[in-house]
């Protein structure tokens, strides 16, 4: 799973985030107030404009302070009734059709069918519920204003803030019901789609015996199921685990029956999981074994993973902290995702050989190399035992204890090296982790749907806000534009950081002017430009342009940043700190949009 930034603790995140939110709200409010004063000054003079803006702000705050929950709920019920009259439940029929025809287009024989099905269901649910709620939000209030039906509400003792909150709450309830039904249907679809069976007959196994004829075990292949087969290696009793294929494995048990061995292949394991990882920090050694700030670039435009060269002293080293005997009594359950870059094809069906070693970060005692075979798009599992061998300085091999000899103050280093020359391993910090345990996949799926719910709330509040002062089509376009800009929020932030620090690997290609220059000159974005005065001036101009873009982009909501579907599809438990941060961000945006909508609606009434 791609994890470009560490997930901070919520307690450490909320302070700076709250300060940034308050600063942003203050600046935006100041800008809007200044714009309102300029408009009024052009109409009635500067002094009268200041008085009107001042009285408008005080009256608006007084209205918000006097909001009645009872009136808000009454207006919310009207919004729900309106949504039902608009046949919003048709979206459930659309979702049912999507699920029915999804089996035609989703390949069950893909590299990881669990990720494919989960990503599709969560993505489709989020898209449908956000689209429906956005259309409801932007068309409802303008239609009432155009038909003058809003007058039947405003003549009652109802405040403008209550109208906005009522619309938002009603449409949010409708979206919540839709998302709940979609989530339940999607859960049933995913579970049913990934379930499959394999058969393993005695004819599909071959006995493994030593030179003296003693039976050591069996090996062979299972029957085909969902377009794939598993290689199996069993012990002498006929028990074992099928090789990891397409992101899952099967446990195999055997029993004698009439002189023959009958093997039973268990259900798929690893497709629908909620792993709880303990991640470490990553550093690199170059091909000569010297410390390096990063690995080798193989020319990929997206520099998330760095590569180490095979057949050299190059290594990727993870340092894990918090390692205790109580947490890992049976050894270290290491799981790895390794990308492979081949400079020559070789035997394409086979993986690339490498090694994993443990090292004590204090006395540098290192274990014997544990051989591994890296395969693309799979999570390799390696159980590092309690007892390991280490090679002494005189060449003797001595047995060592994992926690006594290799763990120092709760810290241990894991070294990865590639053995095959001219081949490369690609890794990122999140690719190696120790498995702390498993969470509930059902609860993790529910948390993934909660991320979609956060996105729906923001979209609904945004649509209601724009509908208070724009016509329905214009409000729809404005809301979509804000959401599209928000999708590039993280990229603009990385681009500005890249220009500020001079590190092109953060966001290769440069700013707007440099990008235009590269397009015209057909220069690759991974190629460093010569530091000529013209290039330096170009980069300085880009920084000047990106500074206001960075500030403006921070105001827009990013639905992709709120999405937690990648965690669910990748089989990782969604951290509580991430959910808490997403909930706080959603609350901040919803409150800001609703308050802004209340002021805009009040200003529209005064203007009319």
Main traits of this protein?
single chain; 608 residues; alpha+beta; Jelly Rolls; 21 strands; 49% helix
Number of strands: 21
Instruction: Supply the helix-strand structural class.
Output: alpha+beta
Strand order of the largest sheet: 1-2-3-4-5-6
C-alpha-based Rg, rounded: 30 Å
**What is the terminal separation in angstroms?**
53 Å
The coarse silhouette is: globular
Low-confidence stretches: none
- The mean pLDDT is 86
Provide the β-strand percentage band.
Answer: 15-25%
CATH top level label of the domain at 276-438: Mainly Beta
Count of alpha/pi helices: 16
**Residues in helices, as a percent range:** 40-55%
CATH A-level architecture of the domain at 276-438: Sandwich
Could you walk me through the main structural features you see in this protein, from its secondary elements to its overall organization?
With 608 residues, the chain is an alpha+beta fold. It has a domain of 163 residues: Jelly Rolls. The protein has 16 helices and 21 strands. Strands 1-2-3-4-5-6 form a six-stranded antiparallel β-sheet, with no helix packed on it. A hairpin with a 5-residue loop joins β17 and β18. α4 packs parallel to α7 and α7 runs antiparallel to α9. The longest helix has 35 residues. The chain starts with 9 loop residues before the first helix and ends with a helix. The mean pLDDT is 86.
Question: TL;DR?
Answer:
By secondary structure, the protein is α+β, with helices and mostly antiparallel strands. It has helices at 10-44, 46-65, 69-85, 90-105, 113-146, 151-154, 160-194, 402-406, 441-467, 472-487, 489-501, 512-521, 533-553, 559-562, 565-570, 576-607, and strands spanning 205-209, 215-221, 231-235, 240-242, 249-257, 260-269, 275-279, 281-285, 291-292, 306-309, 315-320, 332-336, 339-342, 352-359, 370-374, 380-384, 387-391, 397-401, 412-418, 423-427, 432-438. The protein starts with 9 loop residues before the first helix and ends with a helix.
